Write a sequence for this structure.
C-alpha cells in the first residue's frame, strides 16, 4: 500500500530507485513489490518507469461496496440539510408502511418521534408515494386492495382510487409532495433512489414546517436540491455495488 500511495498527480511515473527512496525500502524490496503489483495488474512498466493502472481503483471500490446504502447516503443527505436547513430522511418500503433507514434532523417539527427503524404509513407520506410508485402495477393494485387507508388529518388520502391517482402522478413526474397529510403543519417532498437497472429501492425526502416553508418554496428551491441529492445517492450506491467508477437495492 505504501508503494501505491507514493504515486500521485505530481508523480504519475516513478523509477525503481525513486519508489525505494520514497517508501524508505531497499531496491530489492521495492522491485519485488512492484513486480507483484504488475502481475496483479495494478502497475505497468516500460522497463524503466512504473505507473499505476486503472485497476488500482478496485481497491477503493471494494471499500465502497462494503458499505450499505444508509452509510453511503449519510454524507450526501448532510449536504442537503446544510443547504436547506431542514430535516432529511431516507426510507424503504415494508407494506403498508415505510421504514426509516437514515435520518439527518435539524429541528423537531413533528410530534412523532422519528429515527432509524421508525415506521410511518405509506399512503400519508411523500416517501411512501414514491415507493409505491416504484411498484409494478400488480403489486400496487394488491396494496390498494388489501390496505386500510387510515385518516390522520383532513388532508389524508383515504380513497383507493385517489391514492392510485396520486401514486401514478408521482411515478410520472419522478417525485411526490404531501401537504399536511400525515400531520397538520408538516410538508414534505420525496424522490426515489434507484438501482443501476432503474428500479426504485429507497426514497429520500426533505421535510419542513408549513408555517416556515411555503408550497412554492418547496417546489422552486427544495425540489431541485432534493432531485440532485437522490441522483447522487443512486449513482454512488449503484457504482459501489457494480464495482465501477463514479442506484443499491432497497425499497418511501
Amino acid at each position: 500500500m505504501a508503494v501505491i500511495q507514493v504515486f500521485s498527480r505530481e508523480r504519475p511515473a516513478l523509477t525503481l530507485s525513486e519508489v525505494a527512496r520514497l517508501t524508505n525500502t531497499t531496491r530489492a524490496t521495492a522491485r519485488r513489490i512492484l513486480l507483484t503489483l504488475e502481475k496483479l495488474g495494478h502497475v505497468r512498466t516500460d522497463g524503466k518507469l512504473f505507473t499505476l493502472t486503472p485497476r488500482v481503483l478496485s481497491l477503493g471500490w471494494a471499500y465502497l461496496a462494503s458499505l450499505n446504502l444508509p452509510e453511503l447516503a449519510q454524507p450526501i443527505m448532510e449536504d442537503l440539510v446544510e443547504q436547506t436547513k431542514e430535516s432529511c430522511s431516507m426510507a424503504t418500503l415494508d407494506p403498508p408502511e415505510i421504514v426509516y433507514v437514515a435520518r439527518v434532523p435539524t429541528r423537531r417539527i413533528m410530534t412523532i418521534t422519528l429515527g432509524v427503524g421508525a415506521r410511518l404509513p405509506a399512503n400519508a407520506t411523500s416517501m411512501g408515494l414514491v415507493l409505491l410508485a416504484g411498484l409494478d402495477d400488480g403489486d400496487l393494485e394488491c396494496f390498494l386492495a388489501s390496505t386500510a387507508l387510515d385518516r390522520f388529518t383532513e388532508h389524508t388520502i383515504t380513497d383507493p382510487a385517489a391514492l392510485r391517482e396520486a401514486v401514478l402522478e408521482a411515478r410520472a413526474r419522478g417525485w411526490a409532495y404531501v401537504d399536511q397529510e400525515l400531520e397538520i403543519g408538516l410538508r414534505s417532498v420525496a424522490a426515489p433512489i434507484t438501482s443501476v437497472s432503474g428500479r426504485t429501492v429507497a426514497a429520500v425526502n426533505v421535510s419542513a414546517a408549513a408555517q416556515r416553508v411555503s408550497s412554492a418554496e418547496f417546489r422552486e428551491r427544495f425540489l431541485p436540491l432534493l432531485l440532485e441529492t437522490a441522483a447522487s445517492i443512486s449513482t454512488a450506491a449503484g457504482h459501489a455495488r457494480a464495482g465501477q467508477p463514479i442506484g443499491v437495492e432497497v425499497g418511501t
Observations:
- The mean pLDDT is 86.
